[in-house]
Each structure stands twice: as structure tokens, then as C-alpha cells.
Write a structure and sequence with these properties.
This protein has about 200 residues and is of the alpha+beta class. It has 5 helices and 9 strands. It has a domain at about 75-195: Gcn5-related N-acetyltransferase (GNAT) (Aminopeptidase). Its EC number is 2.3.-.-.
Length: about 200
């Protein structure tokens, strides 16, 4: 069942199931997700690309609280990605994350970021979640009047580049490194509202 946010926005987005691909459920992070979040952050490859690494339950719960605050203030939509399995389509624990964050005061521009845990990497989950969230963010949600989504990743993160291109995010420019937060050059990909 789809839950409604106090503003009336859908906070649970279902990705469609394919012939051999489980459907995805995207919903806001919950406190009980802290264990799965810490487990995912133990992956060295994931930590290589993230600016924040969560090593304890306390850090994970604080991060989840920050995501809830983003929803409450209407400046960040942060979703846990779950796979639906079995005949009833029951969702297991989170296997990834995707978020849309406003970058200007008018909330017409936002960045989108995502990751998937090691055990599901390479199965197309990031691309499927990005496509669903992009269509939703640029289309049916009514909190941010978005006209453009920016997607940033390190130039040597080839997997993220493939996901961005697959989801029609055009490469706009190469951004210089800004250590210590961004130690590598980055790609800026863009998707505009007319693409939704």
C-alpha cells in the first residue's frame, strides 16, 4: 500500500517488475534500516565514491534523521531502495539509496545521487531506481517545481557514468577536483524537465 506524505506526495514509489527482474520499492529511510545501512557502508568500493561513510548504528541513525529532516523541510527526497520478492512482492532490507536534493532557493534545480550495496551491484538496480525517481521528481511530485536534475560523479566512476547515460542524463561538463571533499575531477550530467 502506498503511504501519503503530509503534503500529499507519494513517498513509496514502485518500479515495474520485468520478466526476470524483481520490482523495486523506494520509500523513505526508517530507523530500523540502520543495520542494513552500516552493512552496506562496509564495502570498500562504496566508501571510495561516497563523501560520508557510516561506521556505526549511531552514525546511521543520525544520517536517517537527517534524511527525515530533508523530507520535513521539502528540500531533500531520500529513498531506501528495496527489492520486492516472492509471490506477495514483499520487500526485504534496503539494497541501495537514491536522493534528490534542491540546490537553489527556488527549488527548480536539484542534484540526484545514488548507490547500491555490493551484493546487488551490476544488476541494473541503480539505473531502474534513477529512472523512476527522475520521472517522479521532474513530473508528478509537487513540493519542488524542478526544471533540471544534475548528477555528479567522479570521472573514474565508470559504473555511475553508464547509469547516468542509460537514464538520459547528458554529460554537460568536467568539473575540477575540490579537495578534500571532492579529491577527483567529476562529470556533471544533466536531465531537464522536458525529458520526463
Amino acid at each position: 500500500m502506498t503511504q501519503q506524505h503530509p503534503w500529499g506526495v507519494m513517498v513509496e514509489i514502485l518500479g515495474h517488475e520485468g520478466i526476470s527482474t524483481p520490482a523495486l520499492r523506494l520509500r523513505p529511510w526508517r530507523t530500523e534500516d540502520a543495520v542494513a545501512l552500516v552493512a552496506a557502508h562496509r564495502d570498500p568500493l562504496l566508501r571510495r565514491w561516497l563523501t560520508t561513510s557510516l561506521a556505526s548504528g549511531t552514525e546511521a541513525r543520525r544520517w536517517i534523521d537527517d534524511q527525515s529532516e530533508g523530507w520535513a523541510t521539502g528540500v531533500r527526497f531520500s529513498f531506501a531502495i528495496l527489492e520486492c520478492r516472492g509471490k506477495n512482492g514483499d520487500a526485504g532490507r534496503p539494497v541501495g539509496h537514491i536522493a534528490v536534493t534542491a540546490t537553489d532557493s527556488s527549488k527548480t534545480l536539484a542534484t540526484v545521487g545514488y548507490w547500491t550495496s555490493a551484493e546487488v551491484r551490476g544488476r541494473g538496480i541503480a539505473g531502474r531506481a534513477l529512472e523512476v525517481v527522475s520521472r517522479w521528481a521532474l513530473g508528478s511530485q509537487r513540493i519542488m517545481p524542478l526544471t533540471r536534475l544534475d548528477l555528479l560523479h567522479a570521472v573514474d566512476n565508470h559504473a555511475s557514468c553508464r547509469v547516468a547515460e542509460k537514464c538520459r542524463y547528458a554529460l554537460r561538463s568536467i568539473l575540477p577536483a575540490q579537495p578534500p571533499a571532492f579529491p577527483r575531477d567529476g562529470h556533471l550530467h544533466v536531465r531537464i524537465n522536458s525529458d520526463a
